[in-house]
Design a protein that fits this description.
The chain is of the alpha/beta class. The protein has helices at residues 15-25, 41-51, 60-67, 81-90, 105-118, 132-142, 172-175; strands at residues 6-11, 31-37, 55-57, 71-74, 94-97, 122-124. It binds nicotinamide-adenine-dinucleotide (NAD). Nicotinamide-adenine-dinucleotide (NAD) is lined by residues 11-17, 37-40, 43, 60, 75-78, 80, 98-99, 125, 127.
Length: 180
């Protein structure tokens, strides 16, 4: 019986899920991948088989209802994050949601309200906060070495141009930003 470890379900078995979520969660001895959900059932099946999950689903609602999961990764296109996260929370499941949390503030608020009602945790995949550089800088600030911070300047980098041009990544309705 797979009940001593945290029961993990993956929703949206695309490239980021495989590269980041599965490859790292499966390094944690207390985590067991129970099920994989993807609207593309062939993809769900292939990823479940490759990473040792017993079950795969096309419908994430069914997966959440049947599998008694402790937590899910939400790695679908952005416009689906809120519905999936809220559904998981309403069924007592913690959520690790990819960034962006949602496609607008109202959708993000829906997740926050559901989290508060469910008293469950939501973690957003803001992975750059956990780089050694960011963690070191935060420690340095917390220790007071920079004194009172009265101005901050933020920047961003993109190493490889516009991501996924022509895919959902640049479609405003799905990604939250991009082209109409
Ligand atoms: N944290 C980071 O650095 C980082 C990097 C890349 C992507 N992301 C985020 O990860 C998420 C996924 O990006 P990706 O590059 O893996 O995209 P992707 O297109 O490779 O994968 C998305 C997957 O979701 C599936 N899907 C679509 N609708 C679904 C549904 N209703 N139910 C279940 N599955 C469904 C698709 O079939 C696909 O397999 C996005 O939110 C993206 O912004 C974060």
């Amino acid at each position: 019986m797979k009940n001593e470890k945290l029961r993990y379900g993956l929703i949206g078995a695309g490239s980021n899920a495989i590269k980041k979520h599965l490859s790292n969660y499966l390094l944690i001895p207390d985590v067991e991948l129970i099920a994989v959900g993807d609207v593309n059932i062939e993809q769900a099946k292939a990823v479940a088989e490759q990473y040792g999950a017993d079950s795969f689903y096309q419908n994430y609602e069914e997966m959440i209802k049947l599998e008694k999961l402790d937590f899910v990764s939400v790695c679908t296109p952005n416009s689906l994050h809120a519905d999936i996260a809220v559904y998981a929370l309403e069924h007592g499941v913690h959520v690790h949601c990819e960034k962006p949390l949602a496609i607008n503030g109202a959708e993000a608020q829906r997740i926050v309200h559901a989290k508060n009602r469910a008293k469950k945790k939501v973690m957003v995949g803001l992975n750059n906060r956990f780089t050694n550089e960011a963690a070191y800088l935060k420690k340095f600030i917390d220790a007071g070495h920079l004194g009172e911070i009265y101005k901050a300047r933020a920047g961003w980098i993109r190493r490889s141009g516009i991501p996924g041009r022509g895919t959902w990544f640049t479609n405003k309705q799905v990604a939250g930003g991009g082209y109409d």
